[in-house]
Amino acid sequence: MRVVIAEDSVLLREGLARLLGDGDIVTVASVGDGPGLVAAVEEHVPDLAIVDVRMPPSHTDEGLRAALRVRAARPGFPILVLSQYVEERYAAELIGPGVGYLLKERISDVTEFLAAVRQVAAGGTVIDPEVVLQLLGRQRKGTPMDTLSPREREVLALMAEGRSNAAIAARLVVTDGAVEKHISAIFSKLGLGPAPDDHRRVLAVLAYLER
């Protein structure tokens, strides 16, 4: 696998590249700003870009805006956001299949991180539950999302994290059947009927997120 890293801290860039290398993931370019990310993806056509949110010159949301430019030019291009912050303004617009959003301080296992990198590169979605909760917290009152029970919201957060039904059951200490019932209720309350071309597990998180 070939990746581009966009991170303004040289030490973090080098450390991340070495960690990825230990997992047989090749860093073809490492850059420190948004324009550099766009140019590197265009030049190297990697399998994935790992992007920080806040980069020069304003250190606000340049990373996410650059990621959106990359996705506009290359629809579906895999992006893994790796940041200390949840940038709500653009996060909901970016998140979808082939996108991950992980918080740096909550990554505690290298093996799990490398697995998340590969999952996103393969077109999957991996989202830190804290990111999901912050985005869900922006919902207007009276939307279908408000009809979910607290347990259904927990299940939804774990779904967005990329967990299987069995993994959710183990995390919540419930049966697989109970998880299936919760997921069925989530789909029903959010109006997500069966559709062969839709990723309902992703849409359950994204459909009612405000931008």
Automatic annotation (TrEMBL):
InterPro entries hit by this protein: CheY-like_superfamily, NreC/VraR/RcsB-like_REC, Sig_transdc_resp-reg_C-effctor, Sig_transdc_resp-reg_receiver, Tscrpt_reg_LuxR_C, WalR-like
Coiled coil: none
Domain of life, per lineage: Bacteria
SUPFAM superfamilies linked: C-terminal effector domain of the bipartite response regulators, CheY-like
Keywords: DNA-binding, Phosphoprotein, Transcription, Transcription regulation
List of residues that carry 4-aspartylphosphate: 52
A Pfam family: GerE
Annotated ranges, domain Response regulatory: 2-119
Domain (HTH luxR-type) ranges: 141-211
Zinc-finger as UniProt keyword: no
PANTHER family (alphabetical): TRANSCRIPTIONAL REGULATORY PROTEIN NARL-RELATED (PTHR43214:SF24), TWO-COMPONENT RESPONSE REGULATOR (PTHR43214)
Protein name as annotated: Response regulator transcription factor
Originating organism: Nonomuraea longicatena
